[in-house]
Design brief:
225 residues, alpha/beta, six-stranded mixed beta sheet, four-stranded antiparallel beta sheet, 7 helices, 29% strand
Length: 225
């Protein structure tokens, strides 16, 4: 499902080069749940961006769901991000003039999904994250945790093969973070998608059967619960 082989990512800087990733290799099977941790600047967000097709490696190969991201053209990457990938950011990025339901439904309508099919899918995703009762509310009427759960539902609406989450509890209090963690645990237990979370939170990291620790652009350790 996810296969990263000897990937480096080097950025030019005023003092020379910054090696954000240095020979990283990683394999995840379909339905795996992995967390990536490490100090700021260790390369974990760079790796997430490469998996999302948002950046290109300097060298090495990245395959996700059969697509060679390292050599794909922009048209293929756009299709990959639209049909194969879901992303949950630290900031929720909900459209303020749309309700919860409309925010979750929008990616499906942009893909041309028939209205009835899209509506049924939205209902399922809102139920998964326990947001059915808030479906007709607007983002400003929601707590931070409710907005993040809406964002999770939106990211899953299209049935992505890979879901990436970048510090998804970073802006939440303990109670709301726990509710978001419950959503991720449910997604993982049902094997709805392959799930990769970058986090500084020990509580989030400990949710995953596969725990990857990074340091100085390398994978320092990989443990399985």
């Amino acid at each position: 499902m996810v296969d990263v082989q000897n990937v480096t990512r080097v950025y030019a800087s005023g003092s020379g080069e910054v090696r954000a990733l240095d020979g990283v290799s990683l394999h995840l099977d379909k339905g795996d749940f992995a967390t990536i941790t490490g100090p700021s600047g260790c390369g974990k967000s760079t790796l997430l961006h490469l998996l999302g097709g948002l950046d290109h490696p300097t060298s090495g190969e990245i395959h996700v769901d059969g697509l060679a991201l390292h050599s794909a053209d922009e048209r293929s990457l756009t299709r990959y991000r639209r049909h194969t990938l879901g992303i949950v950011f630290q900031f929720f990025n909900l459209l303020p003039t749309m309700t919860v339901r409309e925010n979750v439904e929008l990616p499906l309508l942009l893909r041309g999904t028939p209205s009835r099919e899209a509506g049924a899918r939205v209902d399922d995703m809102l139920a998964l994250v326990d947001m059915e009762r808030r479906a007709d509310h607007f983002p400003h009427q929601l707590s931070g945790g409710e907005m993040q759960r809406t964002a999770i539902a939106r990211s899953l609406a299209g049935g992505p093969a890979l879901l990436l989450a970048d510090e998804p509890t970073g802006n939440l209090d303990t109670t709301n973070a726990a509710l978001v963690c419950d959503c991720f645990s449910k997604i993982a237990s049902q094997k709805i998608t392959t799930l990769v979370i970058v986090t500084h939170s020990d509580a989030v990291a400990e949710l995953a059967p596969v725990r990857i620790r990074m340091l100085d652009g390398k994978i320092l350790s990989r443990t399985a619960a």
